[in-house]
Design brief:
The protein is of the alpha/beta class and 337 residues long. Helix content is 41%, strand content 17%. The protein binds uridine-5'-diphosphate.
Length: 337
């Protein structure tokens, strides 16, 4: 099965391309490297022995994107390409709405034009906001988004529901990612934050590597077991495999739209992450407590029973594995860049 992977050179995209190849799919990467690096394609080759075909085009440019569909005639598409920095989205909302919404609309128009029936869409647990009952199931009501970024995921899901009502023979899987972390166990691909990392794990690995002086833990008086926020950290390879499982199910369907939480089902606090990293790597991390970060919810983790039973997926990697792989990638970065 030939699959277009928008954002296929990015963090989650590149790991998914590897798993697609490992599972006999032919991924076609569409990525203009605005938030990724060309050398990643070569790294995918080193892992899999196959160099995926690649188009450096903007998914918002309909004509360019159309050309890819015309040439490749894909059977499926995974749509990762989107801006994802929460803070930046607050300051530049139109940048986020323009890119994240237009690219999705183009994907759907092209699916109609070229009779592509299978889509996997990257959504986020951010749609749950500050949920009253934890863990969250797919039926947990979504809440008004805290940021334009989060809103683009909610609007994206709404667009998919409206599109699905009017289209025939389309299979759509909406995957709500919890906190993807880690790197490929080979140490050849991983996260490449541009500038100062916003996310916890790259900030930790850069601090351990001496690139950052100290980690600030945002808040120590949340109503949680140790006062720091609780999240559901999932190894990026497990997350990548969920996309394959979604396609496997779609192959037996003619028309369905399903939403799945992709998380481990376990909540871990920021302090627990730091302690686990220190234990795994034997590195003492410089850190201090700071102000709460605006928009952070105290606690969220997934009820993952739906994806486990319907897609026969389950997380294989532990938090220890993920932190070890993230650290291994950080150390290797000097060699691969
Ligand atoms: N966090 C932190 N210091 C940092 C970055 C993140 O304490 O430098 C905390 C953040 O407040 C949250 C958790 O780590 O509780 C995960 O944040 P991240 O940005 O990685 O993911 P999010 O859950 O916001 O999507």
């Amino acid at each position: 099965m030939k699959v277009i992977v928008t954002g296929g050179a990015g963090f989650i995209g590149s790991h998914t391309v590897v798993e697609l190849i490992n599972n006999g799919y032919t991924p076609i990467i569409v990525d203009d490297f605005r938030n990724s690096k060309p050398f990643i394609i070569n790294q995918i080759f080193k892992i899999t022995g196959q160099k995926p075909k690649h188009y450096a085009i903007d998914c918002c440019n309909y004509k360019d994107f159309e050309t890819v569909f015309k040439i490749e005639k894909p059977e499926g598409i995974i749509h990762f390409a989107a801006y994802k920095a929460v803070g930046e989205s607050v300051n530049k909302p139109l940048k986020y709405y323009e890119n994240n919404i237009n690219s999705l609309v183009n994907v759907l128009k092209l699916m109609n034009e070229f009779d592509v029936n299978n889509l996997v869409f990257s959504s986020s647990c951010t749609v749950y906001g500050s949920a009253k009952v934890i863990p969250v199931t797919e039926k947990t009501p979504t809440q008004k988004a805290e940021s334009p970024y989060g809103n683009t995921k909610q609007i994206g899901e709404d667009i998919l529901h409206d599109y699905f009502k009017t289209s025939k023979n389309k299979n759509i899987s909406i995957l709500r990612y919890f906190n993807p972390i880690g790197a490929h166990p080979s140490g050849l691909i991983g996260e490449l934050p541009i500038g100062t990392p916003n996310n916890l794990i790259p900030f930790i690995t850069q601090t351990a590597d001496g690139i950052r002086k100290s980690l600030t833990i945002f808040g120590n008086d949340y109503p949680t077991r140790d006062g720091s926020c609780i999240r559901d950290y999932i190894h990026v390879v497990d997350l990548a495999i969920a996309h394959i499982k979604a396609f496997e199910k779609q192959k037996n369907q003619t028309s369905e739209l399903e939403t799945y939480n992709v998380g481990t089902g376990k909540g871990t606090s920021v302090i627990e992450v730091v302690e686990c990293f220190e234990k795994e790597t034997k590195i003492k991390l410089n850190y201090s407590f700071g102000e709460k970060r605006e928009g952070d919810v105290a606690e969220i983790y997934a009820d993952n029973s739906k994806i486990i039973s319907e897609l026969e997926w389950e997380p294989k990697y532990s938090l220890q594995d993920a932190l070890k792989d993230a650290w291994n990638w950080q150390k290797n970065l000097k060699n691969v860049k």
